[in-house]
Amino acid sequence: MTDIKNILTFECFDKVYEKGGAEINALKNVSFSLEPGKSTLITGPSGAGKTTLIYLAGLMKKPSSGEISINEIRTRNLNENERSNLIRNEIGFIFRRSNLIHNLSVLENVMLPQISSNVEKARKLLEKVGISEYKRFPCDLSLEEEQKVTLARSLVNDPSLILADEPTGELDNDAAYSFLNILNRIDNIAILMTSDNDSLNESFNQTYELEESRLI
Ligand code: ADP
Ligand code: MG
User: Fold this and answer.
1) The pLDDT value given to residue 204
2) Which residues have CB under 8 Å from 194's CB, separation 6+?
3) For residue 211, which ligand has an atom nearest its CA?
4) Helix, strand, or coil here: 209?
5) 8 Å CB contact between 88 and 21
6) pLDDT class of 2 with cuts at 50, 70, 90
7) Does residue 1 have a pLDDT over 80?
8) Could you give the C-alpha distances from 211 to 17, 167, 200, in angstroms and in order?
9) Of 13, 15, 19, 24, which is best to mutate to test ligand 1, by the most ligand atoms within 8 angstroms of its C-beta?
């Protein structure tokens, strides 16, 4: 782990979608690396390719050409088993809407993806994100609290990378900054986050913009 230079590497990848016989070039010639523990913000308006980028980084979609590496493991030719192990062990996800399971308590939601069940660890993570009443249910949480629980859940298997697709998209400014403060206090995990709001860039080590399907 200590001698890994890049947690996430994109090597000149393209993503082309096909829709009704037409080709949509969602992302073109994207190259990028993210070092351990560093945070990057990718901004761009709706339709810029932010979600596509997160899906590709999270190995949920394959690039049309080029290569994506996680922890310096090239991913194009991984089999299903290798791919899902890499996702489960190395990547935590946060989306725009929290997608917590509504009939499970906050604590149970955080424990759900755990590879080996550990209540104490789940409680500590909830404390870390500022949620002390862990028996509450998602329906009693504000959107900000939901995203904090989702952050705790994303950390539960000690990932080396957090992928967050517009996690502050539903939050007002104060809530967004409160969420980012907590996100920034998490040590030793690389973060790739997207937003349509480029005023959040101060909270990140580096910022890129998606413009005309290219990362600049
Ligand atoms: P963003 O998250 O920045 O709004 P997306 O990654 O969702 O952008 O979309 C980028 C472009 O790719 C858009 O033009 C969108 O319509 C297109 N797109 C996204 N997903 C698909 C898909 N499954 N099939 C066809 N086109 C898609
Ligand atoms: Mg999107």
Assistant:
1) 95
2) 41, 42, 43, 44, 50, 51, 53, 54, 164, 165, 166
3) 1
4) strand
5) no
6) low
7) no
8) 17, 20, 18
9) 24
Q: How far apart are CA 207 and CA 67, in angstroms?
A: 21
Q: Is the CB of 184 under 6 A from ligand 1?
A: no
Judge contact between 162 and 192, C-beta under 8 A.
yes
Q: Looking at the CA of residue 53, tell me the nearest atom of ligand 1.
A: 6
Q: Does residue 51's CB lie within 6 angstroms of at least one atom of ligand 1?
A: yes
50 touches ligand 1 (CB under 6 Å): yes
Burial per residue of 29-49, b for 16 or more beta-carbon CB atoms within 10 angstroms, e otherwise: ebebebebebbbbbbbeeebb
Tens-digit pLDDT profile for residues 59-97:
999 999 999 999 999 999 999 999 999 999 999 999 999
pLDDT, position 102: 94
Which residue, 204, 190, 193, 103, is CA-closest to 155?
190
Q: What angle do CA 155, 158, 164 make, to 5 degrees?
A: 40
3-state SS class at 123? helix
Q: Hey, what domains does the chain have and what are their CATH numbers?
A: 37-64+80-215 (3.40.50.300)
End-to-end CA distance of the chain: 29
